[in-house]
Amino acid sequence: MKSLAKAQEFPEGQRIENACNIITNIIDGKVKKDDFPQTLQSFGVDLTDKELEETLQTTELDDDNKLPLKIFIEILTKNLKSNEKQPLENAGNILNNIVDGKIRVNKLASVLESLGIPLTFEELKEVIKNIGIDDSDMVDLGDFIKELTKNDQFYPDKNS
Fold it and tell me: Strand pairing of 102-104 and 66-68?
């Protein structure tokens, strides 16, 4: 497996778009088989076609041709050398913080940072103010990302 643990430098809008794609792909914790390579690459994991197929053969897809991403990561992690596991462990940590598409406010900054979107405390407050917090102290991650993409302050190169 080729590990892409190095942070890639993207314009801010591209990072937000990548995060939006990740969130869209995993909002219910499952990813379509065809979306696995892109989703894994977004987490910094690059598998060969052979590695992907071998891992998929040891798992069971649901009727919608989807697989729980956590299970896939667990299976894949078992077969890796310890120096190759870090990107997958990071992906697992991100997924563990997302419940039914929502995330606790106190985990939001670290998850966004892991997705390549570092925001200041003031920027987080501004977006949260626009989308709100539920009674469980959680925000809808999809709504949060959408708010970032529609706000020029956070997504300055969206018209580029």
Answer: unpaired
For the chain, what is the mean pLDDT? Answer: 76
What is the 3-class SS of the chain, one letter each residue? CEECCCCCCCCHHHHHHHHHHHHHHHCCCEEEHHHHHHHHHHCCEECCHHHHHHHHHCCCCCCCCEEEHHHHHHHHHHCCCHHHCHHHHHHHHHHHCCECCEEEHHHHHHHHHHCCCCCCHHHHHHHHHHHCCCCCCEEEHHHHHHHHHHCCCCCCCCCC
pLDDT tens digit sequence for 4-54: 333 344 455 666 666 666 666 666 678 888 888 877 777 777 778 888 888
Burial of 90-104, coded b for 16+ CB within 10 Å and e otherwise, reads bbbebbebbeebbbe
Q: How far apart are CA 137 and CA 152, in angstroms?
A: 26
Report the alpha-carbon distance of residue 70 to residue 77 in Å, rounded: 10
- Token pair of 43, please? 């987490």
- Cα(67)–Cα(59) distance, integer angstroms: 8
Q: What is the pTM for the complete model shown?
A: 0.63
Q: Residue 133 corresponds to which tokens in the numbers above?
A: 């917090």
- Tokens 């940590």: give the residue: 93
